[in-house]
Amino acid sequence: MEYVLLCTVILLVAFQNIAKKYYLVKSTKQYNYTLSFVITVVAMIFFVVKAGFRLNFTWDFVPYSLGFALSYGASTAGALFAVKYGSFSVSSLITSYSLIIPTFYGVFVYKDPVEFIGYVGFFLLCVSLFMIREKDKIQSKVSFKWIISILISFAGNGFCSLVQKIQQFNFEGEYKSEFMIVALFICAIGHFVMMIVSKEASLSDLKYSLPIGAMTGLANGVVNYLVMVLTATVPNAILFPSISAGGIVLTFVAGITIYKERFSKAQYMGYILGVTSLILLNL
After folding, report:
1. What pLDDT shows up at residue 85?
2. Predicted local confidence at residue 113, as pLDDT
3. Which of 89, 112, 127, 247 is the most buried (most CB within 10 A)?
4. CA proximity to 96, closest of 218, 230, 227, 247
């Protein structure tokens, strides 16, 4: 059953990537903070409904919610400034490698069992991520601001998943919805403030971002819930690399079939390695 849930997570992660790409391709204007606000609010509503409106709040898990919110905010802000100050492709590549944070934590702290073939699969995934990166048309210089930004993005992205894992482990699988509702509420406040600061907060902005944001937010809520469920049964060393590899493969298929994209030979080889790594990780 856990592999059915894992496949569902992979499908929904790919759907989020495809939906965001559709938004960027079709939109004449980009309301990044408004879109993020809608996604966050809809994901929060999902958890309220999932709990059947029967919520049991306690101050004990609030620090974990705050940790998740701060990690998410750091990931979003760090990625934004990393692209501003440096290379888009290199920034995306380094952020993708943040999966090593929850993976290695599971191996060294929780002693997740990993076979040799699993390490091979993880290595191939890292190579795959490197090969599929898009090369910049303009070479960007490495600056101190970019280094700081990408480190924040890397840490934030990795710690989001790690905080979820730790919270579920320490609370024996309880407070899934409550933990995420508080975390997403904090995130929503942050996005709303940035909407005001960036002057995106208007009815037209919200109307434009609502359809894609609502669908993506629902998918995001389901993904976050299922990841917390799976952390109890699937080792981190399999779970997070599998999600990453599966998302790569499905996004690649969507790029070819929906957007008629063409890739370099190195990128095609990278996607083949991604499929191979997914198979090896789940043997």
Report:
1. 78
2. 77
3. 247
4. 247
- Tokens read off for 216: 């993506």
Contact 6, 228 (CB under 8 A): no
Helix (H) / strand (E) element for 96: namely helix 88-96
Helix or strand or coil: residue 52? Answer: coil
Q: What contacts 6, CB < 8 A, 6 or more positions away?
A: 230, 234, 239, 242, 243, 246
Tokens of 193: 């403030």
Contacts 24+ apart (CB under 8 A), 188-196: 188/37, 188/40, 188/41, 188/44, 190/69, 190/73, 191/33, 191/34, 191/36, 191/37, 191/40, 192/37, 194/33, 195/33, 195/34, 195/37
* Strand extents, DSSP E, 146-272: none
Q: Which long-range contacts (CB under 8 A, 24 or more apart) does 161-166 make?
A: 161/99, 161/101, 161/102, 161/227, 161/240, 162/71, 162/101, 162/102, 162/105, 163/64, 163/67, 163/68, 163/71, 164/68, 164/224, 164/227, 164/228, 164/231, 165/102, 165/105, 165/106, 165/231, 165/236, 166/64
Please tell me the predicted confidence (pLDDT) of residue 93.
67
The answer to whether 72 and 187 have CB atoms below 8 angstroms apart is yes
In which residue are the tokens 């952390």 written?
231
User: Over the chain (283 residues), what is each successive 10-residue block's mean pLDDT?
Assistant: 87 81 65 80 94 87 94 81 70 76 85 82 85 60 80 89 90 92 94 82 70 90 92 83 79 75 80 82 70
CA distance 18 to 219: 12
Q: How far apart are the first and last CA of the chain?
A: 16
